[in-house]
Amino acid sequence: MSDQSQDPKKLNQNNGLASSGQTENEAESKPYVRFDSGQTAAKPRIIVMANQKGGVGKTTTAINLGTALAAVGERVLVLDLDPQGNASTGLGIDHSQRSRSSYHALTGDFPVAECIVPTAIPGLHVVPSSFDLSGAELELVDAPRRSFRLKDALSDFVNQGPVCGGDAKPISYVLIDCPPSLNLLTLNAMTAADAVLVPLQCEFFALEGLSQLMRTVNLVKSSLNRRLEIQGVVLTMYDARNNLSSQVAQDVRDHFGDKVYRTVIPRNVRVSEAPSHGKPALVYDYRCAGSQAYIKLASEIIRRENALRAA
Question: How far apart are CA 203 and CA 116, in angstroms?
Fold first, then answer.
């Protein structure tokens, strides 16, 4: 099978971002407006990918959404808070580059700015995960402000000017990839975040854990982070040939309404292959259905964010 990799620098030239349901002509008639923290003096928007069920596409969404946002000129920081470190691997970060990681940011050993590693994608940076993160929950159990460790670390980063390396433009999005559980790491992420993006696999069992996740979000909002909100629910691994996928999608839309993105991420082999090459799907095969879906999702998210800012 041939590798249809794209030059990351060329993604900006042919991204064609359009929200789901729009034709290219319609998209061109509505100029893209950046969520630019550098021009608006706004703080970076912190969005956490959360779902306690594994295998629903959290990491895939963090990687490819970050790539799509960077492709249109955003400055994006992906913070890998999963001890498995799949987001770091999927962005091509070798273990030798993880001497300073999200573990050190949580424990306060190093500031966030010193844990950041650039990726091959212009404008996309990552705070990688390391094996040490698997023991962080036990280490922090008696620590002061244990639920606010990540919030404090990111606040220091933002207050000092959220820039990465030699890039003078500030970060406009921080995407946090969480472990597949509602543990102290996920709690830290939600406490630090502005919003939660919920990747939901189009299968029956995925619905069962959704109510528990919603309860956790509401609990965090009432006791730890009043600004936290559900940014949206994205349907992943959708198989149009499967009646169950359609039924699950309809049930979720009936329950959450406009909170569910119109863009649906299809089940796609090329998206599954990309991490083994240390590349986002948008770089590995820009033209595949999965990559195009993530481009549309990025457009839809940006339009929602701009609407929130204008309100």
Answer: 36
